[in-house]
Amino acid sequence: MLTNTLRFLRIFYTLIRYRLDVFIPFQLSPWYIRYTLGLICSIGRERAMKNRAKNIRLALESLGPIFVKFGQILSTRRDLLDEELANELAQLQDNVPPFSGKIAQDIIEKSLKAPVSEIFSEFSTEPLASASIAQVHTAKLYSGEDVIIKVIRPKIDKTINKDIQLLYSLARLVNTLSEDGKRLRPLEVVRDYEYTVLDELDLSKEAANTCLLLRNFKDSELLYVPKIYWDYTRTSVMVMERISGIPVADIDKLNAANVDMKCLAERGVEIFFTQVFSHSFFHADMHPGNIFVDPSNPNKPKYIAIDCAIMGSLDDEDKNYLARNLLAFFQQDYRLVAELHVESGWVPKETPVHAFESAIRSVCEPMFDKPLKDISFGQVLIGLFQTARRFNMEVQPQLILLEKTLLNIEGLGRQLYPDLDLWVTAKPFLERWMQEQIGPKRVLEEVRKQAPQWVGQLPKIPNLVFNALSQVSQQEERLQAQTESIKELSNELKRSRKNQSFRLLGLISIGTAWFIMEPSRLNYLKSADVLSVGLLLLGLYLLVLKP
What we know:
- Pathway: Cofactor biosynthesis; ubiquinone biosynthesis [regulation].
- It is a single chain.
- The chain contains 24 helices and 11 strands.
- The protein has 547 residues and is an alpha+beta fold.
- It has 4 domains: 1-94, no CATH class; 96-242, no CATH class; 312-438, no CATH class; 482-545.
- The longest helix has 56 residues, at 461-516.
């Protein structure tokens, strides 16, 4: 409890130090707050308002690695942030001081249940790199392979859980006090962060992601994925092949190696669309620190990808709608874009399509005044999603990851080759993919995919046919029995109605006989006894003897 209180006081001090009080709407607060704390905070408020984006970044850096990581993830939510704040948060660097190599060695030995000297012929206690969640050490296996060992920071899970709870508290506070803050959906952002950062704490998940990406690009000339050594991989430790290459952001080294930058940029775009539409599994954390280039063939350079902790995927329906949305936008068919959003369920079914279409046109049409190569593919998606939010579009987490990755890829591609025309690469890919979804190749692929299941069902077909025929026969028998029962019931109803008529007539006869037999009326009816007896017998016959 004391630790949480001290941590909260540290956060509160940081918020005041970096003048984040500018987000508090004192004009809406009670008078005693407005004329006390509000007056104090008004000093220098105008300058603080101008620098608030930078101050947010400095505050997150001051609070430590977990908040830095939060700021990095927040910077990808350009559908929620204004451009100035998103760009400022994108500058956050994850240069975190390393923890002791001896502690890392203890974690490795505890996880692998063996001394380091028994597993590795060489092991460096000096970290190669250090980040907010883990740090990396180099080693060599006795079989001769050079490897790197990724180790989760000690007790980082407890720190993360505490800080996440504090972030939720701050998010609720912002959501309550500030309309501007509420627009940023702080609770939703913290939930996204919690999901992402907790996944990064399990290195076995990252190892599994890496293996799947490796299988998807096996023997590929586009992308190389390092090998995972599963025998030495646990939740807190991962051992993988050590790669060598040029960091993709080191333009000078790439130029010195005579790498074809146009080819490199186009291959990056091709890798992205292949992952998204062909594999339905894409690397969602492709910032420059996670990408290297193999320059051994400079005319056809190959990418090397590491750090597969954050991966995204789209189902067939999402891929189909996304591809059709982008192609419709390219053709400036905004009516189709609006209809696709409604059809996919991304916006409510009752959304007025004509109003939605008009809103999309007002946002997207100005983009086409620019040369096609200057249109940002990522900004197109952001524009579409921001417009859809005005029509109550629900948050689509898989699309947010996609948008973030696309922005990274597009920015990287234009950094490598400023004249990159993303549409030239993307449009043919999307058109080809759409044709494959409805062509004979797709049908054959589905047949091939379902064939093993069909073959497994073949031996059961005779029994299934026999059972089906037996059921049909039994259904016919039951139907015939039901038909006969209905007929019998109908006849019974007819007989019942007929008997009711006879009984009614019998009652009338008995009643008339009683009327005639009244002593007071005998003087007026001479043949009363004979008539009354006859009517009485007729009534009894109709009531009792008549079937």
